[in-house]
Amino acid sequence: MESGAGKHWTEEEVKALLSVWSEKNIRKQLQGTLRNKGIFIYIAKRLQELGVCRDWKQCRAKYKNLKYEYRTVKYAHTSGDVTKTMKFFHDLDAILRYEPVTQLAAEENCRCSATETQPNMSPTAERTQ
């Protein structure tokens, strides 16, 4: 099995990855886990059952790349640039639409303060805690 960035993913391989990724239990595990090697080992095994021979590192790299490209296109669309597109945008939108943005990601992306990431807290309630 060839690993690394040298082997491109075919459309069928990406579709298989998206079908496994779209499963509720997989989405749930990926959302709340930073150390997710075990999840990607499981995903790679599931892909092998579907005839896709990729190791866990390739699956994780493709997952990260698809997610990054999706967010880039999504941001472009919300900024008014509808010319930016990607092949599996609608599939990814269905998978990622309800994924919560973690506090860390929100701080990295928009440099939000702690009070901005907690909309239910008023400044007076914050002082009393």
TrEMBL record:
Protein name (Swiss-Prot/TrEMBL): ZSC20 protein
Name of encoding gene: Zscan20
Q: Which PANTHER family match?
A: HEAT SHOCK 70 KDA PROTEIN 14, MYB_SANT-LIKE DNA-BINDING DOMAIN-CONTAINING PROTEIN
Domain Myb/SANT-like DNA-binding: start-end pairs: 7-95
